[in-house]
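User: I've been trying to design a sequence by hand for this structure and keep getting stuck. Would you show me what you'd pick, starting by listing the structure so we're on the same page?

Assistant: Good idea, let's start from the same input. This is the structure you sent:
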């Protein structure tokens, strides 16, 4: 959905090999099965005349990778420069998908990639927090507030030191504030969809109360353990995955509603079919591209992909000659990524030609906003 992590593909040099296959590891002979699967993938790549260098990059990634666990798939995109995408999928293709073409094929990653939704995981207590930022990779850091004591003494304090309660509460507030400040900066910089907070109840509650509303609105509190006493990693992973999947489907529903409302109101803020969507992409007007079943549909372009058109007549109107023919499900997402539009799979719209878009503004107003 979020296209930022695909932007490096825009500056790479093709051609590209894109492969998607069942990478399940749920049987005793999974390793042997993987070798057989790779042999089939390699033979198909060679049949499509993929260069030996590209095949070698993919072989190294497949054969030398750390085995997964359970059922799932794998998606890889490689060029002569190396492997550019290597991702676990929540979908195990019944039949491998193998393409060697001028453009990368990223729709299966967009629809089924497990790293699609950026999020933050925070394990907090009254001393500080461990923070993981999941966005095209994982970055970790620890925030320690440094104030103490954070626990009341077990017995009466020595006379002269005063009541420990105010000092303890102030130390807790100071440490939680340090975590809240750092977390706010991370959220403002990375814009994650969700922020998962784990820890004992009071620590979680205090952190959420210290956050600005814009950050607190993204928080999901998980009841899976505490920072230093530990938690069940599998339970935590399952809980995070469940919430991410729910958020993904919620977001798809919001996009579908945006699209249908725009169509119903005739606002000009929706497009469907190859002609309309190509026009919106050329104008930079697409906010979210929706790609469904486009079959083997193709589009044309001149020397620049931004001239994308559904046919030679429209391309000629743009003052360009048809020098490239691309598969629509490869070219449309790449143009959308180049204009910072989000890309999603179709989850119920079933638009004309299998493609639609929610727009930032009507294409005819492009000149007014540029």
């Amino acid at each position: 959905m979020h296209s930022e992590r695909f932007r490096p593909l825009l500056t790479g040099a093709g051609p590209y090999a894109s492969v998607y296959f069942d990478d399940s590891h749920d049987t005793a002979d999974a390793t042997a099965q993987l070798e057989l699967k790779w042999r089939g993938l390699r033979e198909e790549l060679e049949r499509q005349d993929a260069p030996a260098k590209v095949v070698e990059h993919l072989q190294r990634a497949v054969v030398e990778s750390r085995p997964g666990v359970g059922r799932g798939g794998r998606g890889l995109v490689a060029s002569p420069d190396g492997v550019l995408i290597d991702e676990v999928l929540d979908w195990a293709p019944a039949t491998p998908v193998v393409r060697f073409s001028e453009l990368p094929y990223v729709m299966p990653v967009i629809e089924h990639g497990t790293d699609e939704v950026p999020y933050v995981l925070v394990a907090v207590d009254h001393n500080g927090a461990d923070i993981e930022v999941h966005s095209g990779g994982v970055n970790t850091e620890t925030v320690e507030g440094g104030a103490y004591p954070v626990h009341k003494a077990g017995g009466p304090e020595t006379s002269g030191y005063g009541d420990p309660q105010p000092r303890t509460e102030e130390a807790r507030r100071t440490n939680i504030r340090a975590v809240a400040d750092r977390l706010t900066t991370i959220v403002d910089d990375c814009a994650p969809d969700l922020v998962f907070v784990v820890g004992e109840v009071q620590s979680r509650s205090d952190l959420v109360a210290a956050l600005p509303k814009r950050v607190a609105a993204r928080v999901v509190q998980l009841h899976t353990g505490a920072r230093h006493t530990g938690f069940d990693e599998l339970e935590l992973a399952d809980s995070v995955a469940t919430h991410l999947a729910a958020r993904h489907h919620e977001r798809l529903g919001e996009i579908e509603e945006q699209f249908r409302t725009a169509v119903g109101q005739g606002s000009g803020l929706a497009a469907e079919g190859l002609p309309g969507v190509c026009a919106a992409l050329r104008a930079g007007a697409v906010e979210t591209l929706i790609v469904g079943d486009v079959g083997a549909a193709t589009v044309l372009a001149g020397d620049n992909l931004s001239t994308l058109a559904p046919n030679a007549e429209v391309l000629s109107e743009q003052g360009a000659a048809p020098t490239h023919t691309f598969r629509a499900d490869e070219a449309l997402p790449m143009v959308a990524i180049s204009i910072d539009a989000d890309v999603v799979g179709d989850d119920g719209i079933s638009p004309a030609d299998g493609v639609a878009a929610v727009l930032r503004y009507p294409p005819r107003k492009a000149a007014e906003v540029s």
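That's my pick for every position. To get oriented when you compare it with your attempt: Residues 292 and 350 are 7 Å apart (CA to CA). DSSP finds eleven helices and 17 strands in the chain.
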